[in-house]
Design brief:
- A five-stranded antiparallel sheet has the order 15-16-22-18-19, with no helix packed on it.
- The protein has three domains: 291 residues, no CATH class; 130 residues, no CATH class; 115 residues, Immunoglobulin-like.
- The protein has 701 residues and is α+β, with helices and mostly antiparallel strands.
- It is built from 24 helices and 22 strands.
- Helix 15 packs across helix 16.
- Strand 15 and strand 16 form a beta hairpin.
- The chain starts with a helix and ends in a 16-residue tail after the last helix.
- 52% of the residues are buried.
- The longest helix is centred in the first third of the chain and has 26 residues.
Length: 701
């Protein structure tokens, strides 16, 4: 066969069609939708900055005074796609990330459809239908979910290969997409992969037990390969605001469940509201997690054809549709309640609406069966029908796909808002001593600045007001910002609840707490003469360093009692508040000086001097999860729970060098497990003895 004939023209055409809604990506504009400027751009920027400087990215020094980065699920530090952010400018890298995974989604579902018996052209149509479906285009602004939904159909394709043509190499091949799902940092997709795999392998028949066993071997290999991400992420999650005892409950878990009023939007976008422009309606008061939930009108018609005349697999695909919808309805659904009772920590997965990924996969599967039914009945001009279907899907989905991923001029990632520039170090220096540390008061006491009927304007307003953590792109750190991220410990959740109660009614106490944790400025919008609220950055007149020696230590084994005293004394910045066994005590300390600060991604390094004769006490307003592994002059030292989740330790007299970083054990164990997984993959790949095969059957199960 000639090279021209072997080129996958139908698949290439489908990928090109998928890129059409994102034509702005081929200009200087960059995507800025939803959480991209406020979460994902900063995470990827700080990760890439550390790697370019040759540092291990243990810490993000810009969030909450410093939080673990390498073990943060949202950062997905070990996912191979992060190389894009290391070698490309930030905005270009994000465009490449989205387009690469969009192409992978098209190709992956086309590969899955080929295993169902579709020809190249028909499979390409199925791939485009999946990639431009509501769930897929809604998840593109979330980097982890974007990568995971692109990998999911590849897992299905490799599992079908493993069942039909069992081999040791097939075990390794199936482990690759499974590992990538885990490395993406979105744990829900591991469950989605298990659900899809269970349905593909669950049909009884010759070879079923062997297929399940081989798939289990692939899962073990995937777990080993992804262990550097899994182990630190699990350790972080168990101690986080969303772990056991961290404050999760049915009310929090229900946030952004699928409202029953939106069920009609399975039939088409905009039947309740145009979520490309509107943030809320009386029926749906909060902006949906998935603004588009329909697979598209063309796909729905194809799915109906699949139900009516498709081959094997209809029941499994329909089950996925029902399962995803039931889970998306949240705690009000018996399906969700059953899953929460059967799957550990299921209730910690926020935003149940994202479970519609299963619905989307099931609907696309049904559509693929419908395409197969049409292909069997078409004897001539199949290529013309394929081309018309590609055009129909594109016309149906282009507007929604384009408007759900807005773009702006690339300067929004390189030029800080004007009012921040005076606080930035000259020449863009990232010297931590000159780094602005902001307390974003607007996050706790929001002002009526956002237009719920103009999402583009609201996004611009959020960037103009440095909504966390947009300002960190320009070197500004944030302290005590409102967040419920899985990378934050339980104590951060307690601080969140405290400030949420106090900020609107007691700004004096809130601002005293902000000064105590080391803020150098407060961002608080003010109302102008025209009635509009504009952001204002107010430097504190007498800021204190977040890393400082204190004059006294107040200790108490009773945390709530100590916290009350902390508030009663007005968050005294010259005291350390330490939860410590033993009787309540107030202890004086020797004077100490912090001589230099190196606050880097690979650790916090301090040169200090304590005058003596006794020890000084160093208070660090950095979360203790980011300082657990501490050394003093190269020797390990324990870090105490100071200031209710932050850090502190006594320092003996004299000059010393201190280093702080998160516990490295989970990462080291993970790397060891990955090495074992790599060796196991090599051994299985090179095994010559083939497994016995059986006659191929319809891969649609």
């Amino acid at each position: 066969m000639s090279r021209a004939r072997s080129f996958p023209w139908p698949l290439a055409a489908a990928v090109a069609a998928a890129f059409v809604p994102y034509r702005d990506f081929f200009t200087s504009r960059v995507p800025v939708t939803r959480d991209l400027p406020f979460y994902f751009y900063p995470l990827k920027a700080h990760l890439a900055e550390a790697l370019r400087q040759g540092q291990v990215p243990w810490i993000d020094p810009y969030r909450w005074g410093g939080v673990p980065l390498l073990g943060a699920p949202g950062a997905a530090a070990f996912y191979p796609g992060n190389a894009l952010f290391v070698v490309l400018p930030l905005g270009v890298a994000m465009k490449a990330w989205i387009l690469v995974h969009l192409a992978l989604a098209v190709a992956g579902f086309a590969a899955f459809s080929r295993r169902l018996g579709l020809g190249p052209g028909w499979a390409a149509v199925a791939g485009l239908a999946f990639a431009l479906g509501g769930a897929s285009v809604s998840l593109l602004p979330f980097t982890g979910a974007c990568s995971a939904i692109a990998i999911l159909p590849w897992l299905g394709a490799t599992l079908l290969d493993l069942r039909e043509r069992p081999s040791w190499r097939g075990v390794v091949i199936a482990a690759i997409p499974a590992a990538l799902l885990l490395l993406g940092g979105v744990p829900e997709f591991a469950l989605y992969g298990m659900a899809v795999g269970g349905l593909l392998l669950g049909r009884r028949g010759p070879g079923q037990l062997r297929a399940v066993g081989l798939a289990a071997a692939s899962a073990v290999l995937a777990g080993l390969l992804a262990a550097p991400q899994l182990l630190p992420s699990v350790a972080t999650a168990l101690a986080s605001t969303r772990g056991p005892g961290g404050g999760m409950n049915d009310m929090v878990a229900a946030e952004k469940s699928l409202p029953r009023a939106r069920l009609v939007e399975f039939l088409g976008d905009g039947l309740v509201a145009d979520w490309t422009t509107v943030a809320s309606t009386p029926e749906v008061p909060e902006y949906p997690y998935l603004p588009s939930i329909t697979p598209g009108r063309v796909v729905l018609l194809l799915a109906l054809a699949g139900l009516a005349a498709g081959g094997k697999g209809r029941a499994a695909a329909l089950f996925l549709v029902a399962l995803g919808t039931g889970l998306a309805l949240g705690p009000r659904s018996v399906v969700w309640q059953a899953a929460a009772g059967a799957v550990p920590f299921f209730g910690s997965f926020r935003y149940p609406e994202k479970h519609l990924v299963l619905t989307a996969f099931g609907a696309a599967w049904l559509a693929a069966l419908g395409l197969g039914a049409i292909a069997r009945r078409v004897r001539t001009r199949g290529a013309i029908i394929v081309a018309l279907l590609v055009a129909a899907i594109l016309v149906d989905r282009e507007r929604t796909a384009r408007r759900l991923l807005e773009t702006d001029d690339g300067s929004c990632l390189t030029e800080p808002p004007a009012f921040l520039r005076p606080m930035l170090a000259p020449g863009g220096s990232r010297d931590p001593a000159a780094r602005p540390r902001l307390f974003h008061f607007d996050g706790w006491a929001p002002v009526p600045r956002f237009d719920v009927n103009d999402l583009l304007a609201s996004n611009r307003a959020a960037r103009a007001s440095l909504d966390p953590a947009y300002g960190s792109l320009f070197g500004a750190a944030y302290l005590l910002e409102p967040d419920y991220d899985v990378s934050l410990p339980q104590e951060a959740g307690e601080w969140n609840r405290l400030i949420a109660r106090s900020a609107p009614v007691s700004s004096g106490m809130t601002l005293r707490m902000a000064r105590s944790v080391g803020a150098t400025a407060v961002l608080r919008s003010v109302q102008g003469n025209d009635g509009r609220f504009v952001p204002a950055l107010r430097p504190l007149l007498d800021p204190v360093s977040p890393f400082r020696f204190v004059t006294r230590v107040v200790s108490d084994p009773n945390g709530p009692h100590l916290f009350k005293r902390f508030l009663d004394e007005g968050a005294d910045p010259l005291a350390a508040w330490v939860v410590r066994p033993g009787p309540e005590a107030v202890t004086g300390t020797a004077a100490g000086t912090v001589l230099s600060v190196q606050d880097r991604a690979d650790g916090l390094f301090l040169d200090v001097n304590v005058k003596g004769p006794g020890s000084g006490y160093l208070a660090l307003w950095r979360l203790r999860v980011a300082t657990e592994e501490a050394t003093l002059d190269g020797r390990p030292v324990p870090v105490e729970d100071a200031a209710f989740g932050f850090s502190g330790l006594p320092v003996p007299p004299g000059p010393h060098r201190l280093r702080f970083r998160p516990a490295a054990g989970p990462v080291r164990w993970g790397l060891g497990a990955a090495a074992i997984g790599g060796v196991a993959c090599t051994v299985l790949w090179t095994r010559r003895r083939a497994l016995p095969t059986r006659r191929p059957t319809d891969g649609a199960t």
